[in-house]
Amino acid sequence: MDPWPGAEQCAVLRARLLSWWEDHGRHTIPWTRHAAGGRPGPGEALDPYPIWVAEVMLQQTQLQVVLPFWHRWMERFVCLEALAEADGHDVLLLWQGLGYYSRARRLQQAAVLLQQTCLARGAGDPWPRNLEGWLALPGIGRSTAGSILSSAFDLPYPILDGNVKRVLARLGASAQPPARQLARFWRLSEALLDQQRPRAFNQALMDLGATLCTPRNPSCGLCPWQEHCAAYAAGDPARYPVKDVPRPLPFQVIGVGVVFNSAGEVLIDQRLPEGLLGGLWEFPGGKQEPDEAIETTIARELREELAIEVEVGEQLIVVDHAYSHKKLRFVVHRCRWLAGEPQPLASQQVRWVLPPDLVTYPFPAANARIIAALEQR
Ligand code: SF4
């Protein structure tokens, strides 16, 4: 059995973490402060909108990457109403580069829901003050909800994001991956939480994971929990959290055509709204069949998906891209449009666009590299 701390030890851990955090926490994170710049006092509320946006951005992405996106977002969609009424195209364009685009779509869907609920109630405050209210919104899990409730309202809800799972797995030198014992990890996060200062405590826990208890080479010599940490005592803290042996990711080759017409425009299509990259624009193409030449793949896919005939020309670029569940290789060729009015047979819409205008469309990361290759030719 893992050596989880008891109530007395939790109190010591809590006090040590908060004391460390006062001097070493990341106190300049903009959404953890008042708009005017000061730190909120205990029990004082902050505007939930910037916190909610930040927490959704942080779900799959590190703070340093999120910060410039968050600043641009807050300039463009300054409040809940602005996001609810925004054009979906603009929302995706602003998210471009952050990945996991369903987060942006759900953020806007949630903004619409919150605004509708507020209007139905006859104005007032749109923001939920409990777990159920947040979990009812698209794109919000228990940890994100706990983080928003504690950050915005200083309410005592625990969190369990990737950083926190790592810290807690090391604290107890947990012999199993966190994903296999989530209920225990939630109980520990809850047991450690400071009921009087939940906002400060959760932020301190995240800061410990992000700055000292890092995935590789944790700075145990500076850690307020060192003398209680079972992974440190075991002599190899970076061995935790224990992981399951990863399964090899499936690999697929995708033939992609950058199709030009006689006016020098290129053809792009907008993906269907569902799925990981739903609503984004892309250069058309599809999966290579076994023993199929890539030129044949491209011509076939464009015929099947757009009802056009093309002449497949020289290779433009090869882009390897790894998603969490598969690895793709995009083999991209220039093509010349020969016949057939393009039809969106497997997409929302198709459009001919001059190459300099491609930047005004939201593309997945792999397609952004194709655009860069086009600009260099
Ligand atoms: S002692 Fe090291 S491994 Fe343990 S919690 Fe602190 S930084 Fe992490």
Low-confidence stretches: none
Largest sheet: 4 strands, mixed
Q: How does CATH name the architecture of the largest domain? A: Orthogonal Bundle
Measured as a percent range, the helix fraction is: 40-55%
Strands in their spatial order, largest beta sheet:
4-1-6-5
Q: Provide the list of bound ligands, each named once.
A: iron/sulfur cluster
Class from secondary-structure proportions? alpha+beta
List how many beta strands DSSP finds: 7
Strand content: 5-15%
Order of helices and strands: HHHHHHHHHHHHEEEEHEEEH
Instruction: Tell me the CATH superfamily of the largest domain.
Output: Hypothetical protein, domain 2
Total of DSSP H or I helical runs spanning 4+ residues: 14
Distance from N terminus to C terminus (CA atoms, Å) equals 61 Å
Overall, the morphology is: globular
Q: CATH class of the largest domain, anyone?
A: Mainly Alpha
Average pLDDT works out at 94
| Tally of domains | 2
The whole-angstrom Rg is 24 Å
CATH topology of the largest domain: Endonuclease III, domain 1
Oligomer: single chain
